[in-house]
Amino acid sequence: MIDVESKKAKRLTKGAFTVGGFDWSPDSKAIAFDHTINGDPSNSGTGDILHRHAGRRVHRPLVTQAGPDRSPRWSPDGARIAFSSAMAQPFYYYANSRIAVVPAGGGAITELTKSFDENPNPLMWVKDGILFAARRRRRRTSSSWIPRRRP
Known about the structure:
By secondary structure, the protein is mainly beta. The chain has strands spanning 18-24, 30-36, 48-53, 59-63, 69-74, 80-85, 98-103, 110-111, 121-126, 129-133, 135-136, 139-140, 144-147.
């Protein structure tokens, strides 16, 4: 993180891992990021998602299931985080990824795209759901969306 006025840099992560994607919470007080044990592509299955409050030096595991979990995206209210996941599928490298959601404070993971037969990648939350990109027959499609579920 770089302070614009002082131009001083502050490292937010520390540890033996490689950071992939990340997203700041809407209030800019926390960050969710995916990481693998190192940058070697053969270790993509070690991808997990961590949560860190910007004022603290401690990373809290948020998603630690088997297979790659990546591309965290905060909901506009800061209550949930969407992400791309293998959903602990055996032989995940042959299976389509899925989009799932976890409460920002941790908890049960809800899978949203189990019946979607492609590899969706969450882009952003919008008022009525989640926009995502996916390939369709080897071509990238325009953004699609997952409608917000109402109680």
